[in-house]
Amino acid sequence: MAIELTILGCGSATPTLNRNPTSQHLRIQSTDILVDCGEGTQIQCLKNKVKINKIRAVFISHLHGDHYLGLPGLISSMHLLGRKNLLTVYGPPPLERIINMQLEVSQTTLRYPLEFIATDANKPHLLAVFPEFSVHSFPLKHRIPCTGFIFRENPRLRKLSDAAVHDYNIPVIHYRRIKEGEDYVDDNGLIIPNNLLTSDPLPPVSYAFCSDTAPDPSVTKAVENVDHLYHEATFLEELSDRAAETFHSTAMQAAKTAVDANVKHLLLGHYSSRYGDSFPLQQEAETIFPGAKAVEDGMKFILE
């Protein structure tokens, strides 16, 4: 399966009537995760039919409020809804203190286990390994410690041919091993080569998330050759001085990062509230990266 992406929020520090602060929902095969969790994320989950108790992990890029202030409420709602399964939160080290303080002052003992794993904004890391994918973190260039994330699908199983399964009368118990690349040996010792039974799978998909960052060669290197890149585009190029001052990027700078990193697809987000219409940002990026897409809240993408 491809990666399913839902944009829950694509605004920056100040929410607007049409945009919530940053948050995204990813479904990677059978695993649901959130990437950043700005204010209003719970409401956006409800609007977009994301079941919060199915979320297995939350990845927080940094501790500016528009990227994490929705998390304490989300954790509380999971508790009130009777969650039992483990929730893992990945984020900057001080976030653990924030979560624990909120639970302490509200005298809340969670009904479910909560695990916190600290990120490191100083160097790239293999942060997490799930059955279907892995997550790498890497430093972004922002005013406070900030990490980007790359989600990489594991190699997919080979595709089993229904016709071949029927022709060779292969029992179901052998399907998994055949999909993993093994030949099939029947009861008479006849070997059926795997290439007669299966076809090549689609290549695994990779998705990089750059929340808040000034353009930097290390960021370009980190996201090199990914299939899909989400990159902040807080300003138009005419406000490049303001972008530099606040350690953000313009749409054109995001597009240049995508070109230099040789990515296949570019999504833009994290717009300043001064831009009621994101189309000019998309137009600017398209001058050097044709096909760039400015996202809006509620948009859904199949990343293939």
How are the elements arranged and paired?
Blueprint: E1 3-9, E2 23-28, E3 31-37, H1 41-47, E4 55-59, H2 71-80, E5 87-91, H3 94-105, E6 114-118, E7 125-129, E8 133-139, E9 147-153, E10 159-160, H4 162-167, H5 175-179, E11 184-185, E12 191-192, H6 194-197, E13 198-199, E14 206-210, H7 217-222, E15 228-232, H8 240-245, H9 251-261, E16 265-269, H10 279-286, E17 293-294, E18 300-303
Parallel strand pairs: 3-4, 4-5, 5-6, 14-15, 15-16, 16-17
Antiparallel strand pairs: 1-2, 1-18, 2-3, 7-8, 8-9, 9-14, 10-13, 11-12
Q: Record the strand order, biggest sheet.
A: 6-5-4-3-2-1-18
Q: Termini, distance in Å? A: 8 Å
User: What best-fitting shape do the alpha-carbon axes yield?
Assistant: globular
**Global Rg:** 22 Å
Class per helix and strand makeup: alpha/beta
- Which stretches are low in confidence, meaning pLDDT under 50 for 5 or more residues running? none
Please state the second-level CATH architecture of the largest domain.
4-Layer Sandwich
The overall pLDDT average reads 96
CATH topology of the largest domain: Metallo-beta-lactamase, Chain A
Total strand segments: 18
Q: What is the number of independent domains? A: 2
Instruction: Report the biggest beta sheet as strand number plus sense, adding barrel if it closes.
Output: 7 strands, mixed
What CATH first level of the largest domain would be assigned?
A: Alpha Beta
Report the helical percentage. 10-25%
